[in-house]
Amino acid sequence: MNRIVVVGYGPTAHRLVETLTSRGFAGTVTVIGEEPRPAYDRVALTSYLSGTTVEDLTYDVPAGVVTRLNTRVTGIDRDARRVVLADGGAEPYDVLVLATGSAPFVPPVPGAEHAFVYRTIEDLDAIRVAAKDAVEGVVVGGGLLGLEAADALRALGLKAHIVEMSPWLMPRQVDEGGGSVLKSHIEGLGLSVHAGAGVQEIVADDEGQVTGLRKPDGSLVQAQVVVFSAGIRPRDELARSSGLDVGPRGGIVVDSAMRTSDPSIYAIGECALSGGMVYGLVGPCNTMAEVAADRIMGGSAAFEGADLSTKLKLLGVEVAQFGAMEGALDVTYMDPVGGVYKKLFISDDARTLLGGICVGDASPYTSLRPFVGKELPAAPSDLLFSGAGASLDLPDEAQVCSCNNVCAGDIRSAIADKGVTDVPGIKACTRAGTTCGSCVPMLKQLLEKSGVEVSKALCEHFTYSRAELFDIVRVRGITTFSELIGQHGQGRGCDICKPAVASILASLHNGHVLEGERAALQDTNDAFLANIQKNGTYSVVPRIPGGEITPDKLIVIGEVARDFGLYTKITGGQRIDLFGARVEQLPEIWRRLVDAGFESGHAYGKALRTVKSCVGSTWCRYGVQDSVGMAIGLELRYRGLRSPHKLKSAVSGCARECAEARSKDFGIIATEQGWNLYVGGNGGFKPRHADLLATDLTTDELIRTIDRFLMFYIRTADRLQRTATWIESLDGGLDYLREVIMNDSLGICADLDAQMNHHVATYADEWQATLDDPEKLSRFVSFVNAPGVPDPSIVFGSERGQIRPVMAP
Amino acid sequence: MSWTSICAYDALLPERGVCALVDGVQVALFRTYEGELYALSNLDPFSGAYVLSRGIVGTRRGEPTVASPLHKQVFSLVTGLCLDDESVSVPVYAVRAEGGYVEVTVRQLVEAGV
Ligand code: SRM
Ligand SMILES: Cc1cc2nc3c(=O)[nH]c(=O)nc-3n(C[C@H](O)[C@H](O)[C@H](O)COP(=O)(O)OP(=O)(O)OC[C@H]3O[C@@H](n4cnc5c(N)ncnc54)[C@H](O)[C@@H]3O)c2cc1C
Ligand code: SF4
Ligand code: FES
After folding, report:
1. Does A519 contact ligand 3 (Cβ within 6 A)?
2. pTM, two decimal places
3. What is the ipTM of this complex?
4. What region holds the Rieske domain (chain B) (predicted)?
């Protein structure tokens, strides 16, 4: 029993070899996979389209495991105990494990050869290429994976359709009532749903370019990309051809030890048929892998079926199903306006919870799933209102993470016995939360309930979070760092708390950032009102509101750049950056710029950067509002506003969105009736599209809403937390935000408005103020004892007709 | 030991640094909240840029420090040792306040790594 060969290198095979190696298996383990790389996280596959790299997705091969990638197994010679490879080679085994997974089912309709499937990295590469020249796409199949694929098409910029045979979407997870609520959510996001419809053919032109999908009623759904997601079929072809038992509808028959009809061959994962079921979720597949590993090593573990609960958040809609999908009694809560549908199934004596379905609000999933098969912890109607379940105490044996089969008791003991204090710690210790992530809120709850103090201290000098410090400063009327650290902190501060407090003081009082003691709190960028570069020089970015600039001002920028020999570049923020200024040159450069009417662009500050604009209705034939005018107005209103992280905005004149407003912290898109406001977008390291907060606002409503959005963010966000992560961190997310700033649910709007008005009324250009103050200006020298001497270490070469820094070797 | 007079003590802001050029050597001078003076080389060994005088001054477990403005590594003002990577340190120079003036000598007090 010392040579194990595994066929297929998907997530299940990975879990098997990982379990074997971590348990110290003594023999050789060889994994043969036809894909060109080791197993990767298929559950997270879609994130590959939004920038997650193949490296990030791919699992590490456990030490000692031999892999043969890009290699297909074509047969099993059971008598000789070896597998035959496509390249003609063979691999002998003592124990063989089939982990060949499943393949997407493609119905045999005419033209199906032109369609894509959605399962591997290569599939996504192909879809991405095809989407480049496409406008519309259609996904066949409205199940969990189909919706994920449709969302992916949408994210690739296509108008997406979903064709589903059943009368409603996600028929395996929700009932008809849930399906109708789900459909209205999805249509509200601009996707078209064709439920109760099949596929007649995929229509393509003579060059093989797809033009659409024909439905049985003869109508055509126009699309240049078609993706099939109409179910999966276990890959049991090797088992079949070598005479192992397979089920009538496919799947390799296994017993509870995961053994096939040949005792030296196991089958695990999506290719296995256990108790008449093929399991298409990672949770059960992982359990199968662990059972097989245990058996191979002489243990007696058994696979007795698994929980098929699912929870997902697709296109911003939460959908969840747990336990049974029917029961003697059921209790339904339905709010078609709010788009929420929740149903619980209970036993005929109304005491035992059997299962539930949720659309639009999955909170019962998190709080109630562990109670399936147990006594109801409260009256069903109470349990259906969101939040009611949050305070329930889970029994130790309640399963919390279904992907990795971890129970509440396991997590409690990790906290109590292993001293784990945060979610990453729980993940490392128990694996809970490491797969689909849907149990992470539960993990947080368990942590909080266990009484562990989760540290939110800013740094060693303050035990408070940024939001708490903000309140302390605001409520106690504190105006200096010394007061704050003396009364509420310890030590003398550092590069973390000083700029954070400087930002809070600036947001609240709007004084000059270099005034008095505040000068010593600033990062070098704020200290010199410019951005430091790799060689110690600085860049200069004058504000160009909305990207609009007169020829005269352009000429001034050109002259300044020429006279000071600065490298000049158009930025991604619709303005101009001048690089290579030494500290002692900054005041002279800014004197010229200020005289010509320029102001600081705050490229150096955690503050409003730019409000980009498209040309809008003044010139553009499609424009419906004056986007330039609005962008300039907003940029002037919020200029100089210090915040937890930088703030970016954009205004587009119509839905074509040339200003890329949805990639901004707050983005505005003109409509025929007014303005749509989107919040929480960013580019950068983890790009995210902004979410729609409100539609068809008047100009006044728009500005009031943005005022409150920004001030609420400034008040409550963490240090260096952009709006996207801030909104995600709010309990209740976007809906909660809407309640607070549009319906004044906390009663703080008047306060927020007053704070913004204070900012607008007291704004002054900080470069102008610096030039007017000899004391501040005196700090702009390279050498305190030789103010006129330039730093001799700064050397430039040239490139494409401009300067570039040269670093000493 | 030869001392070079740099500037008036009052010209230094508490909790900030300045740079002085002393016999061709760039010296970063700091005045802390308590009024102490410290002098380090201005060269940030991580980036190769002469910028340490422009970092944020603070404390780590009571020890006075400066954080490089480029990539935020923290150095002890007392020993020049990088507290984030103890294999790196910067030279420390002698500095004193004399008759209201700050004086420095670039004879190195602490060699790298000592
Ligand atoms: C100059 C510019 C690149 C260019 O040549 O086009 C630039 C340059 C810098 N960016 Fe940027 N970013 C510039 C547009 C962008 C954009 C595009 C945009 O704004 O439309 C993005 C993506 C959009 C976004 O922010 O969501 C962008 C994402 C970043 C990030 C990542 C932010 C994130 O949330 O992940 C950083 C790092 C940070 O802020 O912590 C960054 C940081 C920086 C810093 C400040 C890094 C630094 O501290 O030295 C760069 C110095 C600017 C300088 O010295 O003047 N820059 N940066 C652009 C200035 C725009 C402007 O006029 O103000
Ligand atoms: C986009 C997407 C999203 C998903 N989201 C979720 C989710 O949120 N939650 C959830 O629980 N599940 C989800 N799943 C399902 C989950 O990914 C599968 O349950 C899991 O991948 C099954 O793993 P496996 O190793 O059994 O099969 P597979 O992942 O199919 O791996 C089998 C491997 O074997 C290889 N192979 C097959 N035959 C041979 C042969 N003859 N020779 C060599 N190699 C061979 C295949 O190429 C493949 O690499 C998702 C799946 C997809 C595609
Ligand atoms: S977003 Fe609309 S109005 Fe603005 S430039 Fe593009 S097409 Fe024209
Ligand atoms: S339930 Fe999927 S990671 Fe825990």
Report:
1. no
2. 0.57
3. 0.72
4. 4-104
